[in-house]
Amino acid sequence: MIVALIGLMQFGFSLIFGMAVSVLFAGIAPTQKNRLSLGFLCAFFLFIQSACWWFWGLDWTFKLYPLITHLPLIVILSLYYKRPWLISAVSVLAGYLCCQAPRWVGFLAGAAFGSRLADHLFYMGAVFLSYYFLKRYVAESIRQFMQKSVRSCLFLGAMPLFYYIFDYVTTIYTDVLYRGTEWAVQFMPSTVSVFYFLFVLLYYAETQKQATIQRERDMLDTQFRLAQTEFASLRQMQQNAAAYRHDMRHHFALLQGLASKEHIEELREYLRTAQSDMDAITPMRYCENETVNLILSAFAAKAKQSGILLTIDARLPDVLPFSDTELCSLLSNGLENAIQSCQKIIDPNERHIKLRVYAKNNKLCIDIRNSCQTDPLFQQGLPVSEEQGHGFGTKSMAHVVEKHGGVFQFSVKDGWFIFQATA
Hints:
alpha+beta
């Protein structure tokens, strides 16, 4: 009598454990309302199962279990708790699979002690330990994996689905597994082997994908840091120019002294030196935007040093919906790539860069084009470089444009490499 009573308790523990794990994997919030509703569901399912047991016996109760428990639970998770259908189904299937470990512990204990009572007691103890382990170490990873993509969710649910079908076909609806039928005995080991290798392949592909994304993210961060450093140096140049202007009265006093003493050659030499210093530290004024003036002044000097004809048409207001770092990343990367491309052209007379940047309807419009010796390769609309560590500048530019909801295009036409963007 006691064994039968504890057997009934094991039946209830199995239901509660399976439901709790399914809810855990599905990501149902542990609110007071949800706890009450889940408690009611457990009581409802226990009542239905008890009624089936009373009218049709234990054997038919097990056979009807998918219809009276699993399928209704999937529907309730989807409709009442608003979880996606696929996640609900996979959670229930995974919960069913998790019930097998406590069952195996109970079976070993029953066989060791030669007692059905030991089977029931060890099963119930294993249920508590399994739930604690799943909740603490497994559930969060399962939820994230299922929510990552439909493909991940399907892959995660495939193994529990195969086991679910196999278990019901070979042990509940038939007894082919217990009779030692060869195909049934070999089915699960073969399935586990296949899914093991599929998991290794998927895990490797995902690892490589994440590593690539991380490398690109690191390179983009490096690009932004370099842009910040370069912009800081431009700011310093502007401050030097301001300091030089502040000291002009001292220069004028010295000039007046030289003029009064009629030291004409010294006066001319001093003026030449002062003019050279002023040209070196004073940024040219292309438009109303101070940041753009600093950037363009620096690259105009770089282009001149490389023997490149840089034509600039800039018409921008003082205020733009871009941070200084973003402007620096856009213009610096674009002009840096253009200069590097022109430097590869042997004939200095063929080295040309044209920049046109303006504002229209509160949008920043950029057109950078440079003469190129060879057409670059494109991948997903972006030029790619075979050189190690290159090719991230264009990705950084695309990232800035897309961040502001804009559009961009890289193209080659009539010997010109062209970057156009509106954001």
